[in-house]
Amino acid sequence: GPIAAFEGVSVQYGSVTALDDVTLEIERGEIIGIVGESGAGKSTMLNLLDAATHPTEGRVVIDGTDPQRLSGREIRLLRRRIGMIFQRFNLLGNRTARQNVALPLKLQRTQDPALVAELLDYVGLADRADHYPAQLSGGQQQRVAIARALVTRPGLLLADEPTSSLDTRATEDVLELLAATRRDFGATVVLVTHELDSVAAIADRAAVLEGGVLRSVFPVVRSAARGERDSYL
Ligand code: ADP
Ligand code: ADP
Fold this sequence. Notes:
Elements lengths: L3 E10 L2 E11 L4 E5 L6 H8 L7 E6 L9 H8 L2 E4 L11 H11 L5 H10 L15 H13 L5 E5 L7 H18 L2 E6 L2 H7 L2 E6 L2 E7 L14
Parallel strand pairs: 3-7, 3-8, 5-6, 6-7
Antiparallel strand pairs: 1-2, 1-4, 8-9
Helix pairs in contact: 3-4, 3-5, 4-5, 5-6
The structure holds adenosine-5'-diphosphate (2 copies).
């Protein structure tokens, strides 16, 4: 079945309807873009997928289970299988790239220095492993954040405006890396953005949100003639 599903989901914050009767299945292994203006409900959808918010009406199912039926401990276990990437990277400024990538493991009272080094190499930052975030460009910081998100081997990667703070070149690097992540790790990627170009570059499908309503869901068609991954960006 799908890795996640929204079944008639509404989310109400007082008098504000953040989501209005949203039904959507997210397929295993796909890259789906969720697009919409500020206030459309995109973050609310991600918060539901991370079990940080619950629906006011309807149901969210993540990997076959409704997080509302899980205990606190079970929710923490579920969250370990979900990676998050943010617009502002959310790295710890007083930790090196290597320490930031290792952090999710450390929080689980475990470590895997070889995996951490391998992921830093994977995102192209082997030679920056002992730099602090302030010594890295925005694009490099986001690549550290992607390595950190991958360190727990998540099946689901949630990216909240991951390129909105980046210049064109760094945006292309990060999008290419997200596409590679699906290919190399088999992760499902949910890409929330107001940038249609980003969705056009890497997503299989786009879901359009407007004022909390899911207006349309459609496949993204890329010209087959353009072929390999570095040419479609
Ligand atoms: P987007 O990510 O597309 O900008 P959000 O999901 O953040 O949209 O917000 C959707 C609507 O819900 C907005 O009107 C926002 O102000 C409101 N909203 C989101 N979270 C909360 C909250 N915790 N409390 C009150 N209103 C909220
Ligand atoms: P964005 O719209 O880019 O997602 P925001 O700064 O609007 O970012 O929201 C950041 C977080 O704050 C969101 O995850 C949302 O849950 C929460 N939020 C948004 N709007 C409100 C609000 N009106 N009241 C309380 N929390 C909110």
